[in-house]
Write a structure and sequence with these properties.
mainly alpha; rod-shaped; coiled coil
């Protein structure tokens, strides 16, 4: 094998490793982003449920 071929193979390997690490980093960022979105949705749902419960109680007291 010629020296430049070895250098090219090394550079290709390094590029593949970098691409692999970047894919993993994007995947982790995406995962964290979806976790935050799920937490926000859960909090919003809980807040809405509390509000509806309070409204239902108010209506029941007013009617009763």
């Amino acid at each position: 094998m010629l020296p430049y071929e070895d250098l090219v193979r090394t550079r290709m390997y390094e590029a593949e490793q970098l691409a692999s690490r970047q894919r993993l980093a994007r995947l982790l960022r995406s995962h964290r982003r979806w976790q935050r979105a799920a937490k926000r949705a859960t909090r919003r749902l809980e807040r809405t449920e509390r509000s509806l419960t309070a409204t239902e109680n108010w209506i029941a007291q007013s009617a009763g």
